[in-house]
Specification:
Length: 409
């Protein structure tokens, strides 16, 4: 259960890094309460999902902050106690999670995967991992349904153990959800996050007759950030016919198992030092066409970024400092913005006085250059040498200046 609480904290941190200012959250008094009717509803739902035949669930999710949004969809297969397969499409990337009962596998890239032995893991580890699908709005609710454990009391205990923690679970009045009578519950956690108030509110709706899950909404509110994730269940089958290979992990030939301290590639793995980068062209904010080919003879940093990306913004002073320091020696920067709001990008560039061109087409993650380079996470950078070949992959922080100095020699 501590893992679920940590998961929600991670979601809040991500939201804070990417979202725009939002109203402050006021601390609530006497907020610690669990409605017995809420416990009863979740117990009834857990009972509805208890089946020796397993289940198949199709879902669609929408995640949004005030600056950006993304959609995902997927299919979940489950057979108790720990057989799982989740296939999820998330914009430019796909995620697969598989548990064969002995080990848990996850991959965002067909050529890379991670493996975790289940030998020393808690019995509900796989069910908890299933809850990380759909931008984590499933979270605690799905984990309870799959593991068969009502988590409300445990979550309350874990939350109260954190600084400023309070927890409330309440049953909601029935509503019509797309014409179907549905009953719901709301879970609200309040914490002090770095001395500032944070609220996590999860609302789940169940079919009033079958008690099958129909929709989950998760809201994370910080003093300066807010995110909303909504997951809708479009189909549930409690008697699926599983294919023989459903719970078998079958990596592609040559796929690499990542070590514990290795990062998942979030760009085209073909992008390596010494090769010629993919074509990169577009129209900059000033209306002029630009191409990486036009920088031949210079050392140029290609910077995939966005104004809503906290780590990207944090890296700007380093890039700007190196630009000013080495421009006279032949160093330049070409930005590739994954923003969708042109005015927000223009205002940001003007306010920060960024002198290099920014390629922009307003398509966000679907921009042609990001797709061509297989970019599934930002910031992502490539340093191109005078010969037009890749001199460094993803140099950031102190490593950027070292890579520039080496390329300029």
């Amino acid at each position: 259960m501590k893992r679920i609480t940590s998961l929600l904290l991670a979601l809040a941190i991500s939201s804070a890094a990417h979202a725009a200012p939002a109203p402050r959250v006021a601390k609530a008094a006497a907020h610690n309460h669990i409605d017995p009717a809420a416990i009863a509803l979740l117990d009834e739902a857990i009972a509805a999902y208890k089946t020796d035949n397993g289940l198949m669930m199709k879902f669609e999710s929408n995640f949004a902050t005030t600056k950006r949004s993304r959609k995902s969809s997927g299919v979940l297969h489950w057979k108790a106690p720990n057989l799982l397969r989740v296939e999820e499409s998330m914009g430019n990337s796909n995620r697969i999670m598989v548990s064969d009962g002995q080990a848990f596998f996850t991959s965002y890239n067909p050529q890379r995967f991670r493996r975790v032995s289940l030998e020393k893991m808690p019995s509900d580890f796989v069910a908890n991992m299933a809850g990380t699908a759909s931008d984590a709005s499933f979270g605690e609710i799905l984990a309870s349904l799959l593991s068969g454990k009502n988590s409300l009391l445990e979550t309350r205990k874990a939350t109260l153990g954190l600084e400023g923690g309070s927890y409330r679970a309440e049953r909601l009045a029935p509503i019509l959800l797309n014409g179907v009578s549905s009953e719901g519950l709301r879970l609200t956690s309040r914490l002090d996050f770095g001395g500032k108030p944070m609220m996590i509110e999860t609302t789940a709706w169940f079919d009033a007759k079958t008690r099958l899950l129909r929709r989950v909404q998760s809201i994370v509110q910080l003093p300066t950030a807010r995110s909303v994730s909504v997951t809708t269940i479009s189909e549930t089958d409690l008697n699926p016919a599983f294919a023989p290979a459903t719970f078998v992990w079958s990596p592609l030939p040559g796929a690499k198992e990542l070590k514990e301290d290795e990062e998942e590639d979030y760009f085209d793995p073909k992008l390596k030092v010494g090769i010629t980068p993919h074509p990169l062209t577009g129209v900059a904010l000033d209306g002029k066409p630009r191409s990486i080919a036009g920088y031949r003879g210079k050392v140029v940093l290609i910077d995939f970024w966005a104004t809503w990306c906290g780590p990207c913004v944090a890296e700007i002073p380093t890039v700007l400092n190196n630009y000013q320091k080495y421009k006279a020696q032949g160093f330049d920067v070409l930005g590739v913005s994954l923003d969708e709001d042109k005015k927000a990008l223009t205002d940001f560039v003007k306010a920060r006085k960024l002198p290099w061109p920014q390629l922009f087409d307003g398509k966000g993650w679907k921009t042609a250059n990001a797709t061509r380079y297989g970019v599934r996470g930002i910031p992502f950078t490539l340093l191109i040498g005078r010969d037009g070949k890749i001199a460094a992959v993803n140099p950031r922080g102190p490593q950027l200046e070292k890579a520039i100095q080496k390329a300029l020699k």
